[in-house]
TrEMBL record:
Residues 26-37 have a biased composition (Low complexity). It comes from the Eukaryota. WD repeats lie at residues 436-468. It comes from Microdochium trichocladiopsis. The lineage of its organism: Eukaryota, Fungi, Dikarya, Ascomycota, Pezizomycotina. This is WD40-repeat-containing domain protein. SMART domains: WD40. Keywords: WD repeat.
Length: 621
């Protein structure tokens, strides 16, 4: 993880220094158009916010809107910070309209004050911008927030760069009003029966009211989204074939819209924990919130009101323990078997760059003692006994470790970090046993499958690579992402049915990959940064945390292939890339005989069929 000198301020707390920046970023740009305004070369008729439409009786408040003639002499002397990347900059602010009679009192004021005064009188977006200013690029040392726009500001930016010949189209004003309404809507839960195509998607967005289709918005998002990389050009590799999108593993169950999700570091996307089907956890302001995915109700799981330095950088939960890592070498945890929400505080390091990048809960290999493995930004990796709050081991590496995953037998550990290579280490000593070469940028996601030999790694080079522990020399599959780098990876749990790899990208896309062949997948997409994913209820449900300020929340997906057969025909691929034969093997990570040997009371097939009958739902997706 790249190092930063200053701590992140609250993303949604504007200050006086934001005024000029906010004004330039579009609030004032709705007032008029100018010949000097840049026209977005990517903007064509397919991206238009609707065609020219007649003003309806429902559009109250637009009757007094009249086109303004443009002066040729006035120019707004407004500059923007040099550290704002080009993709966040709007075209030059258009010249202001001439003053009507009722604005004569503004003559003589500084130009910036004139524009702000007109904005206050004619544009409700000043209230919107004060509630949530646009995010500044993360390379700026004062901000660790995402550098790409949230859904509301994405729509505002898009509306702002429209061609001038349709500037006074009534549909433009209707779209602007719809965007404002979207930003001010109360949080609610979107259910399966609420979905209505473009009129209501997973996030409850009514796209026709915005005078645009969801498909056009998705195309626009792909054109404008910037994938963050630490090595220039690392995500511009030779185009790889995309997986066939012909799987139906999960279907939409519901989404609870929440406005208190706090993503405090744009590179760290493991901030969703889940202990059961009714208990999930995410970071909020000065707290960790518990949410019931089934109804969207929330309550405080841990509060940090008395800790002035408490900020959550990573989070995880097991059936018994909830842990939140901090930005200052600290962590907090509590038992989930009690009602006491007071956390126990622990310390990992006093290093100035002590951000806790990742934490994984697991049991000790020779006992059932709960342990936590922490990857820190000070190049250290530490294992802590949660029963005694004592350090058991500490290993230092030549690069920062951003994520780790323990093998099922607890003997090996896969690590990725601020290096393009992947490291396989001894879980006890921390010694590097094998270095895996293939990625071209820093890594932030990895997982080890329950079969014991399948490993997945995700890096900022926009690829997910699959490795086989029996043949470490090269990846057995290279999977390209849709929009950005994969920052959260999860294999489906043992006994959940057909093997799956869930890969959450930095924003928008959740890929559910067939981990038997790595040739097909199912894709869900939302608008917003993704903070993490987690399987729950034995793999029957998959949760994803969307961190968009306005339309973020918890996305809930339910498995829809219960009752599937015990085995499938899979192509066997040799390491030279040649398909040699078709074999029949268990669809799960282990065969029925192997699972019975582990002492399971019921086989996974029996569990799945019982669950299928209990749900009583025959819909395939």
């Amino acid at each position: 993880m790249a190092e930063f000198e200053e701590d992140k301020a609250d993303d949604h707390s504007p200050d006086d220094s934001d005024d000029d920046y906010d004004l330039h970023q579009g609030s004032g740009a709705f007032l008029s158009s100018a010949g000097s305004a840049q026209v977005d070369s990517t903007m064509d008729d397919s991206y238009a916010f609707g065609e020219l439409s007649q003003l309806s009786s429902d559009d109250e408040g637009l009757d007094d809107v009249e086109p303004q003639t443009q002066p040729s002499a006035l120019q707004l002397p407004l500059t923007i910070p040099t550290n704002i990347p080009p993709h966040l900059q709007l075209p030059p602010l258009p010249d202001p309209p001439p003053f009507p009679p009722d604005h004569g009192h503004l003559v003589g004021m500084p130009m910036t004050q004139q524009m702000m005064q007109i904005q206050d009188e004619h544009d409700d977006f000043d209230e919107l911008m004060q509630s949530h200013p646009m995010a500044i690029s993360p390379p700026n040392a004062v901000s660790l927030g995402p550098e790409n726009l949230d859904v509301v500001n994405f729509l505002r930016h898009w509306l702002c760069v429209r061609q001038e010949d349709v500037y006074h189209d009534v549909s433009r004003y209707q779209a602007r009003r719809a965007i404002l309404k979207l930003a001010q809507e109360d949080a609610r839960r979107i259910r399966l029966e609420d979905l209505a195509g473009d009129e209501c998607d997973f996030q409850g967005i009514n796209w026709p009211s915005l005078k645009v289709t969801r498909t056009a918005a998705r195309q626009r998002r792909k054109v404008t989204y910037i994938n963050y990389v630490n090595r220039e050009g690392s995500d511009g590799q030779i185009p790889l074939p995309h997986l066939r999108p012909d799987c139906n593993f999960y279907r939409f169950q519901g989404m609870s819209i929440k406005r208190d999700v706090r993503l405090l570091h744009f590179q760290l996307r493991n901030i969703l924990g889940c202990s059961s089907r009714s208990r999930a956890f995410y970071p909020s302001l000065k707290a960790v919130r518990e949410i019931n995915p089934n109804d969207g109700s929330t309550k405080a799981a841990m509060t940090f009101e008395s800790d002035s330095d408490a900020q959550t950088s990573t989070l995880t939960a097991s059936q018994d323990v909830l842990i939140a890592g901090g930005f200052f070498g600290d962590f907090r945890y509590r038992s989930l078997n009690t009602e006491d929400a007071t956390p126990t505080k622990g310390r990992l390091t006093d290093h100035p760059s002590g951000i806790t990048n990742h934490v994984q809960i697991h049991e000790a290999r020779r006992s059932h003692a709960p342990l936590a493995a922490f990857a820190s930004n000070d190049y250290g990796f530490r294992v802590v006994d949660l029963g005694t709050n004592q350090h058991l081991s500490e290993s230092m590496y030549e690069c920062i470790i951003n994520c780790s995953a323990l093998s099922p037998d607890s003997r090996l550990r896969v690590m990725v970090g601020d290096h393009q290579d992947v490291f396989i280490t001894d879980a006890d000593s921390g010694r590097i046993l094998k270095t895996l070469v293939g990625h071209s940028d820093f890594g932030f996601a990895c997982d080890w499958a329950p079969d014991g030999w399948t490993v997945a790694t995700g890096n900022q080079d926009r690829t997910v690579r699959i490795w086989d522990a029996r043949y470490w020399d090269r990846p057995v599959a290279i999977i390209p992402t849709e929009l950005s780098g994969a920052r959260s990876l999860r294999f489906s749990p043992l006994g959940s049915g057909r093997r799956i790899l869930a890969a959450a990208e930095e924003a928008d896309y959740l890929n559910i990959i067939d981990a038997g062949t790595f040739q097909t997948k199912q894709t869900f997409d939302v608008f917003g940064e993704i903070g993490g994913i987690s399987f729950t209820n034995g793999g029957s449900e998959l949760l994803a945390l969307c961190c968009d300020y306005y339309r973020g929340g918890l996305l809930q997906l339910s498995r829809c292939d219960h009752g599937a057969g015990d085995s499938f025909l899979y192509p066997t691929e040799r390491h030279d890339g040649v398909y040699s034969s078709l074999i029949s093997r268990s669809s799960d990570w282990l065969s029925e005989a192997e699972l019975e040997g582990l002492g399971m009371a019921k086989t996974p097939t029996e569990h799945r069929r019982q669950a299928f009958l209990a749900y009583g739902d025959l819909m395939p997706f």
